[in-house]
Design a protein that fits this description.
The strands form 3 sheets. Strands 5-6-7-3-2-11 form a 6-stranded mixed sheet. Strands 1, 4, 8, 9 and 10 form a 5-stranded mixed sheet that branches. The chain has a 3-stranded antiparallel sheet with strand order 12-13-14. It is of the alpha+beta class.
């Protein structure tokens, strides 16, 4: 049902909004394909039904209408909604309406690949831009890899009403321009999930590839391992080695074998993993 709108207050305002309470961010994985390297993660973009730190109240039905706009669907179907590296606010002057309505292709740091809802929270799947060693998107990726938590803020044009107490109500749907990447969210909860170390996620594919190589190497060179499994009918494709050098191998009859190779192989693994 459409909200009741008082025509006396139908003034449209450019809104630059911060991210929100009860949000979380979780790295999904690092992508390395076709010569590109970038991060993909899930990000809470906005909450609804409660006033944010700007004392502005959004209702989710407003944003749901805005997300169905033709230009939003067109962007999502053609690679994603571009997100700028910070709000377009000049340091020495007020931004023009034309600039607020425009996404600068030279200032894009990430792409919003899609939106989803979790109750009164709007989430997006975000990908950083691979734009070379000194590019904005690459710097953003490296900041995340170094532990800086990403946050996103709304940029839109919407009708709103200022109440006598100074609070603001968004009273109708408008135009969603984008969600810009910022440093400080409006609520302290809007940070990366600290339970998953970033470096373990972004190096997962490298780590697994290297450990698989170590496993193959140890199986072909370790006298201790080979003498143990020689008569146990091992399933060699199940072989795995962990960061401490512990080898696990399934067998067809005896179950799973767990054993350590010689110390020299365990030391090689330990020395290599200092870089992870």
């Amino acid at each position: 049902m459409n909200p009741m709108i008082d025509d006396r207050y139908l003034n449209y305002f450019a809104v630059i909004e911060s991210t929100v309470e009860n949000a979380d961010t979780k790295i999904i994985k690092e992508i390395n394909t076709n010569g590109l390297s970038y991060l993909r993660f899930s990000q809470c973009l906005q909450s609804f039904g409660q006033r944010n730190r700007n004392r502005r109240l959004w209702l989710s039905q407003m944003l749901k209408i805005m997300l169905e706009d033709m230009h939003v669907r067109e962007l999502l179907s053609n690679g994603g909604m571009p997100s700028e590296n910070g709000h377009p606010i000049p340091p020495s002057s007020q931004p023009t309406m034309e600039r607020l309505l425009t996404i600068d292709p030279n200032n894009i740091s990430s792409l919003i690949k899609g939106f989803s809802w979790k109750g009164e929270l709007l989430y997006g799947i975000i990908e950083t831009i691979d734009d070379g060693n000194s590019g904005i998107g690459t710097k953003f990726k490296r900041l995340i890899m170094q532990g800086v938590s990403p946050a996103y803020s709304l940029r839109s044009i919407v009708p709103q009403r200022k109440n006598p107490d100074g609070t603001i109500d968004v009273i109708g749907p408008g135009r969603l321009i984008t969600y810009d990447r910022v440093f400080v969210p409006s609520h302290q909860e809007a940070y990366i999930d600290k339970s998953i170390p970033v470096k373990e996620i972004i190096t997962k594919s490298q780590f697994e590839t290297v450990m698989e190589s170590f496993s193959d190497f140890v199986l072909s060179h370790s006298t201790k391992v080979n003498s143990t499994i020689d008569k146990m009918d091992p399933v060699m494709e199940s072989a795995n080695i962990d960061k401490n050098g512990l080898i696990t191998i399934d067998t067809k009859k005896e179950g799973k074998i767990l054993l350590y190779p010689e110390n020299k192989y365990r030391k090689e693994i330990k020395d290599f993993l200092k870089d992870f």
